[in-house]
Write a structure and sequence with these properties.
The protein is an alpha/beta fold and about 300 residues long. The chain is built from 10 helices and 11 strands. It has a single domain, classed as Rossmann fold (3-Layer(aba) Sandwich), CATH 3.40.50. The strands form 2 sheets. Strands 1-11-10-7-2-3-6 form a 7-stranded parallel β-sheet, with helices on both faces. Strands 5-4-9-8 form a 4-stranded antiparallel β-sheet, with no helix packed on it.
Length: about 300
């Protein structure tokens, strides 16, 4: 039987992995990380934060430039990181990029009392997307409101948008402490998954849905978005699923070192490179996606050496 989590024994997470995988990841140097690229999986380093976030913003521009009336195209984007979003708006305005045939999918949103939080909520991801990016784009260049797809608890329109013939050129994301993309968290250790987590094939069948969030995710979001006030962080969220992720032509993960730890960044890179998918480490399931890119700010990679503070 697999080990119990060191953090939340009622849940699956990366601490239930075989010790050998964890130790191998912890020993990787930054240069070794860079050399874990393989066909279908690219690892890229950026030496400055300016270059890092500009490159992330340019993925939006590159995708949206491909959109035409007969072949609309779009991006699925995260909240976390967010630093790229004002740059996206500036680039659209300065390049005078007409977005009438471009699309955007938000990848997740908080849920409270069975409904997505309103756009007025301080933690609303839709609010952040609009305020940091879309409201800053000049009106003559903005995409139609119908081309902005934000997940709601009534998933009908959101799911339909993924099957409407619009290409998702790239799905961006960050990596949380629990090793998720979007809010694709590990599941509870109960029912059929009491003794082993879902197989990669089972997890891959999941589509956009409401999820119960892992305790690690709650603590992280309290720390990064709420000053540590964990009681204000919702325990549920809407998240884009693996089914939609595999409709994206490319998955691009951006890690500046602000969200996951030096160890976590190494672990998922190793598991994807070596094709070790395990749903206790949801990000590792991208080992089976045909086009994944991990982007790192070199200064944020850090080390796994013990250091007292």
């Amino acid at each position: 039987m697999r080990s119990f989590s060191k953090v939340a024994p009622d849940w699956w997470d990366y601490t239930t992995l075989d010790r050998a995988i964890l130790d191998d990841a912890a020993q990787l140097t930054a240069d070794e990380l860079l050399h874990l690229s393989r066909p279908g999986f690219t690892v890229k380093f950026y030496d400055t934060l300016e270059d890092f976030y500009l490159a992330e913003a340019l993925e939006y521009i590159t995708a949206w430039r491909q959109a035409t009336a007969s072949a609309p195209a779009g991006v699925c984007g995260p909240i976390g990181p967010t630093e790229q979003l004002p740059l996206v708006a500036r680039l659209v305005n300065d390049l005078e990029l007409d977005l009438r045939h471009a699309h955007f999918w938000a990848m997740d949103e908080w849920v409270m009392d069975g409904k997505q939080v309103p756009v007025t909520h301080s933690l609303s991801f839709e609010k952040a997307d609009r305020e940091l990016c879309f409201n800053r784009i000049r009106s003559e260049f903005r995409m139609p409101e119908a081309n902005l797809h934000f997940p709601k608890t009534d998933l009908t329109n959101y799911l339909k948008s993924w099957n409407s013939g619009v290409r998702c050129v790239v799905m961006q994301g960050g990596q949380g402490d629990v090793k998720h993309w979007a809010f694709n968290d590990p599941v509870r250790r109960e029912g059929p998954y009491k003794d082993k987590p879902p197989t990669p094939q089972e997890y891959r069948k999941l589509c956009t849905r409401i999820v119960n969030l892992h305790p690690i995710t709650l603590i992280q979001n309290a720390r990064t978005s709420g000053g540590g006030v964990v009681q204000n962080v919702p325990s549920q969220a809407l998240t884009v699923g693996p089914q939609e992720t595999w409709k994206a032509e490319k998955v691009s993960i951006w890690q500046a070192g602000n969200h996951d730890s030096p160890f976590g960044m190494r672990l998922t890179t190793l598991m994807i490179s070596k094709k070790i998918p395990d749903s206790a480490v949801p990000m590792s399931l991208l080992a089976d996606h045909p086009n994944v890119q991990f982007n790192f700010f070199r200064g944020g990679i850090g080390t796994c050496e013990a250091e007292m503070h």
